[in-house]
Amino acid sequence: MTRAPLSWSMRIGLAILGFYVAVALLSLVWTPHDPLSPGVGDGFLPPSVEFPLGTDRLGSDVLSRLMAGTQYNLGIAVLAVAIALTVGSILGVIAGYYGGATDIAISRGVEVFQAFPGLLFAMLIVKAVGPGVVNVILVLSFVGIPDYVRLARAEVQSRRNWPYAEAARMVGNRSWQVAFRHILPNSTGPLLAFTSINAAFVALVTASLGFLGLGLSPNTPEWGNMIARGQDGVMTGEWWISFFPGLAILGMTGAFYLLGDALSDLTDPRRRR
Amino acid sequence: MSDYLLEVTGLSGAFRSPTGELTPVLHDVSFDLRAGVTTAIVGETGSGKSLTALSILGIQPATFVRSAGRIIFDGQDLLALDARALRAVRGRRIAMVFQDARSALNPVFTVGRQLADVHRLYHGGSRAAAMDAAIDALRRVAIPEPARRARQYPHEFSGGMAQRAMIALAALICRPELLILDEPTTGLDVTTQAEIMELLAELARAERLTTCLITHDLGVVAESCDQVVVMNAGRVVETATTEAIFTSPREAYTQRLLAASQLVEGAA
Predict the structure, then answer these.
(1) Is B143 a residue whose pLDDT tops 60?
(2) How many CB atoms are located within 10 Å of the residue A78 CB?
(3) Which end of chain B is more exposed for a tag (fewer CB within 10 A), N or C?
């Protein structure tokens, strides 16, 4: 079984994400300078051979911090999306398949959280539970769950009385087997397509929380933190401190969006050649 | 024990609308399926024949509310069974072939995998062994190149081929005692219809199946069935042998049905 050739948006998206993953892995073992220690050079040094992306206010190497930051920004996005996808899909399938009081409990439950805009909601909870990588991941996945619930619920609801679902019941499958093994696999396309949009959103909110000083501790080389540290320099000419983390966020968000459509194509047998 | 494999007695029920109103659709439906015999349930669209069949398996739509009746299969009342006991009957003892085989097969799994999954559900064993059983079943329903076809998806199957695969699943993988065929040839072209009916007759003989054919096509009934149950508007109108139905129909509705099918000259 061969697949149709990958679309260009898919290839570019995959190439960029592959690059980010490579940088994140590399930064675990090597960065040009210590990303956490201040004063590896003088403060506010412009890009040079020794500091290719310059140094920030505290004299930390921007390139090293940027590389180490990939671990945080990519890791948070991937984990938050994975948790939201898993929990949201499970709840959505249950709501869509069993209907009735179960559906009402789950649907109304998640709608309460959708009453607030995502970023505001994330800010409120992080403020309440405190900073930290685990908290940020949990909060961001929490913000994403309602969308997955609604998507999975609608998908399953529209398919639960299709002949193949009836056939699955006919041969003696349990109801959870029909729902999760026979109906849910038909919905992987839309759910995966949504993960890329969700991942882009998570990447932006992670950086936003960092920028607002709510996410991780201030010295963490998270890109939003880095932008916040360099924001005074933007006005006075030290543009590199905020510019490069901004570019990194832009690249990652863009890559997630590019993957969107292409992901759903890959799961549809009809698109295979 | 009686020589009836399945006895439906006084089955009545209604559809419940979202506002709670009940629309009666089945009225005191009673008929028996004799073991080893092919019985046809004929009637026009909306006469309740498919709903009756789905009720036998307990997979009727959730909006259907049963008000009375018993369905005795091999001495036990299916309507009194709990979910676990019912699952032991579904597929393993009563299987069903659906009208539109292409939508009764799951679009995201290969045909071979779907048959293999059911095989493993009943017998366990390795994936490879289950796939062998699936390919073997496809071969027995005369699907050419079964090993290659097993790796294909339902959308790559024609309607006739998909129905053969569905029959392989219901008759040969499930190995039931009772096989319910819900309009198995509707939507297929005439030559394919004949082939499918021939295949079903052959399998029923080889596997000693009791079959229940639900159809509105009296031509198919005349060729392949021993007993006929005529249904109209949720009621059983007439029950007789095929010969009696075609030569001396008692009820006016049966006579009209025959006249409409133009199988019996001057029946009107």
Answers:
(1) yes
(2) 18
(3) N
User: Quick one: pLDDT at residue A189?
Assistant: 87
Q: Which neighbouring-strand residues pair with B33? A: B6
Pairing mode of beta strands B64-73, B76-77: antiparallel
Using CB atoms, pick whichever of A164, A172, A174 lies closest to residue B106: A164
Q: Hey, what long-range contacts does B242-245 have (CB within 8 A, 24 or more apart)?
A: B242/B40, B245/B221
Mark yes or no for CB contact A168/B95 under 8 Å. no
Report yes or no: B109 at the A interface, CB cutoff 8 Å. Answer: yes
pTM above 0.95, yes or no: no
Interface test with B, best of A1, A155, A164 (most B CBs within 10 A): A164
Flag if B90 and A171 touch (Cβ within 8 Å).
yes
B contact residues 166-185, partner A, Cβ 8 Å cutoff: 166, 169, 174
Non-local (6+) Cβ contacts of B203 within 8 A are B140, B141, B167, B171, B172, B209
User: A172 to chain B, minimum CA–CA distance in Å?
Assistant: 5
Residue of B nearest to A174 (CA): B87
Provide DSSP, B214-234. EES-HHHHHHH-SEEEEEETT
A206-253 confidence digits (pLDDT tens): 999 999 988 888 889 999 999 999 988 888 889 999 999 999 999 999
CA atoms of A257 and A9, how far apart (whole Å):
9
In angstroms, the Cα distances linking B231 to A145, B221, B228, B254 are: 50, 14, 10, 9
Q: What is the phi/psi pair of residue B22, to 5°? A: -105, 130
In A17-52, which positions are buried (b, 16+ CB within 10 angstroms) versus exposed (e)? beebeebbeebeeebebebeeeebbeebbeeeeebe
Neighbouring C-beta atoms of residue A111, cutoff 10 Å:
12
A269 and chain B in contact, CB less than 8 A = yes
Shortest Cα–Cα distance, A156 to chain B (Å):
14
